[in-house]
Amino acid sequence: MDKVLIWDWPVRIGHWLLVGAFALAWITGESEEWRLVHAFAGGTVVGVILFRLLWGLVGTRHARFASFVRGPRAVLGYVLGLLRRDESHYAGHNAAGGWAIVALLSLGLLTGASGWLVYQDSGGEWLEEVHEALASGMLGVALLHVVGVVVSSLAHRENLVRAMFTGLKQGRHDEAIANSRPLTVVLLLGWVALCAWWLTR
Amino acid sequence: MKSAIVILAGLCAATVQAATPADLLTGYHTAAAQQTAGFQPSAQRGAAFHTRNFGVSAKLASCASCHTDNPAQAGRHVVTDKPIKPLAPAANAERLTDPAKVEKWFKRNCTEVVGRECSAAEKADYIAYVTGGR
Question: Chain A partners of B109 at a C-beta cutoff of 8 Å?
Answer without folding.
Answer: 32
